[in-house]
Each structure stands twice: as C-alpha cells, then as structure tokens.
Amino acid sequence: MTGLLLAAALAAQPLSEPAAGWTFAAPCRLFRGAELYGHIDGGAELYLELGFEEAAVCELGKDGATLEVELYRMTDPVAALGAYLGRCGPETPAGGLGDRHTAGRYQVLLWRERFLLVVNNPEGTPALGPAMVEVARELAGRLPPSPELEPWTALPAQGRVAGSERIVRGPVGLGAFITLGDGDVLRLGTGVTAVVARYAAGAPHGLGSLLVADYPDEAAALAALAYLGSHLDPTIEVIRRTQSGIDFRDWAGKLGTARVAGQRLELRFDLPAR
Questions:
Q1: pTM recorded for the entire structure
Q2: How far is Cα 171 from Cα 225, in angstroms, rounded to an integer?
Q3: Are the C-beta atoms of residues 102 and 109 closer than 8 Å to each other?
Q4: Helix (H, G, I), strand (E, B) or coil at 247
Q5: Which of 113, 177, 230, 259 has the fewest CB atoms within 10 Å distance of its CB?
Q6: Residue 119, Ramachandran bin (φ over 0: left; ψ between -120 and 50: alpha; else beta)
Q7: Taking every pair of C-alpha atoms in the chain, what is the biggest distance, in angstroms?
Q8: Which positions ≥6 away from 235 have C-beta within 8 Å?
Q9: Are the beta carbons of 140 and 96 closer than 8 angstroms?
Q10: Within 13 Å, how many C-alpha atoms sit on residue 3's CB side?
C-alpha cells in the first residue's frame, strides 16, 4: 500500500487521531486480510478464521511514556467477541469501562461491536495503568455501540463453567478444545458458527465439554457428521456409528459423542470413561 493510500485508509479509522493528551510516537500501520501475518505471525490464523478485515496499530507517546494501541476490525460482532474471548483469559475488569473487557498490568483488551481494541503497556509500568484504561475508554467511545448479543443460548446454563465459553468457526478454534482430525472436520468453514463451553460435575449431561453448531439445514448437518466420521484422527476409536451419530473414545480414554438432530450438531467430549 502506497503512503498516500495508507494515509487515506487511516484517516477513516477511529485511530485517525490520538487519545486526548497523547501524540503519535510513530506512523500508524495498517494490516488488511492476510497482511495480518506481518503483525502477529503465528497468531493470525484465529482472526482470519473468525472473520478479519483490518487492523490499525499505533504508538502513542506522552511525557516520555509509550503505549501501543491495536484496533482489529472483524467482519461482524460475533467474530469480534470470538477474537476477544480467544485472547482475554480470566477476565479482570477495571473501573471506568462499560464494555466487556479485561485489564492487567501489560494490556487492556476490550470488545465493542465488531472491533477488538487492545491497549498495550510494553514495559508493564504500573503508573500507566490508569492511563491505559482512560485511553481504552476514549477510543472505545469512538466505536459504534455493541448490539445485544447472547450467542450462548444453545448451551445449557446449568453447570456451565463461567468464562469457558468460546466461539468457533474452524479448525484453529476447535483445536484449542479437541483434536478430531486434520483440517476443518466439522465443515464450519462453510459459514457455520459453533459455540463451545466446559461443564462442571453435576451438569445435566455430566462433566465434560459441549459444542453446538447450527447448519443451514438437516442435510448440511448430516453431511458434516459424515465428513467427521470419515476424517477422524487415527488415535480416535469409533465405538458406535449410526446415520445421525458417532460415539468415540480418544487417545486418553475419554469418551465423546457427535449427534445430529434437525439442523443442529452437538458434540460432547472429554467425558469420563465409564
């Protein structure tokens, strides 16, 4: 991208101006599509899988201090929430921020609409903690408000481990929970969004994890199940197979099931061996 095109693209960004009292310490950089590998090589896959458009990265300076700001624009709010959940870890909210966020010594992460905002304190300077929160608050205010979004309705609430919920749109996100085989074994890359969470002992369906994916129709869900059945990792033992379900045992001896009912596929895994 030429300098003029980059300047024009950045001028349309919420980061076209620094936070109040701060200046740009270096020219901002813009990464679009697969260019993201040039910024977070080794971690870009999850963003691209969820639905990534562009990221602006800027350094802010004030009185000798430096903060780095990253603003990721995703294709939709669910993608942005998925990117946030993939990075946030145990959430530790800070006062003064109304959006879903987590704040630590080195970083503030915040989800708003289809954006993931990251404010980095590279040196971990404790005195910059309040400034990180204030910069995040101001920049978030430049973004559209988040919609009412509750993607977990397909996951039973009873026994669900708070903070374990994730959004999965392909093999990278799925691989953080379970390895079923090579590639997109659940055919999520066809435009399907899955949600997954861990469950504690005492949950209605027992200890383990549950993934739910809704496909366009029953035929697509059954096709995904058939694809899974023919692409399972060799370390997975199939115990029982029907047209609408697969029971299996993984390499560690834990049990799992995949079932289709209508357009929905439910995958239960990490179940204790009986």
A1: 0.92
A2: 15
A3: yes
A4: strand
A5: 230
A6: beta
A7: 67
A8: 250, 251
A9: no
A10: 1
- Alpha-carbon gap, residue 112 to 73, rounded angstroms: 10
Which amino acid appears at position 130 of this protein? P
Residue 98, number of CB atoms within 10 A of its CB: 13
Low-confidence ranges of the chain (pLDDT < 70): 1-12, 203-206, 274
CA 47 from chain centre, in angstroms, equals: 7
How confident is the model over 138-166, as pLDDT tens digits?
999 999 999 998 899 999 998 999 999 99
Strands annotated E in the chain: 23-32, 52-62, 65-74, 101-103, 107-112, 115-120, 166-168, 194-199, 208-214, 237-242, 245-249, 255-261, 264-271
pLDDT digits (tens, 9 = 90+) for 235-267: 999 999 999 999 999 998 999 999 999 999 999
